Amino acid sequence: MSEPLRAKSGELTADEILDILREGRRVIVEAEMLGGVHEVSLRHDGTTFYCDTPTTLHKHAEEEEMRNCIVKMGYAKDE
């Protein structure tokens, strides 16, 4: 498995993140939440998209759902 790409919130666009996930790589996003800076792991297993935060694991069956999550949570920069 290849090394995950590490980025800070707002460093990549949602399209760039999704392209990397479709290639089979994970994206580790450094995000401010819960009063501190935490790492969020984004990944795709070929069927399901995952957003693993410090408090929960979100699963998305559709790419558009994952895009909405990435944008809503502020992981991507404005396009």
From TrEMBL:
**Domain of life according to the entry:** Archaea
Looking up InterPro entries in the UniProt record yields: DUF8001
DUF8001 domain spans which residues?
Answer: 1-77
Q: Which Pfam families match?
A: DUF8001
| Name listed for the protein in its UniProt record | DUF8001 domain-containing protein
Query: Could you tell me which species this protein originates from?
Result: Halogeometricum borinquense (strain ATCC 700274 / DSM 11551 / JCM 10706 / KCTC 4070 / PR3)
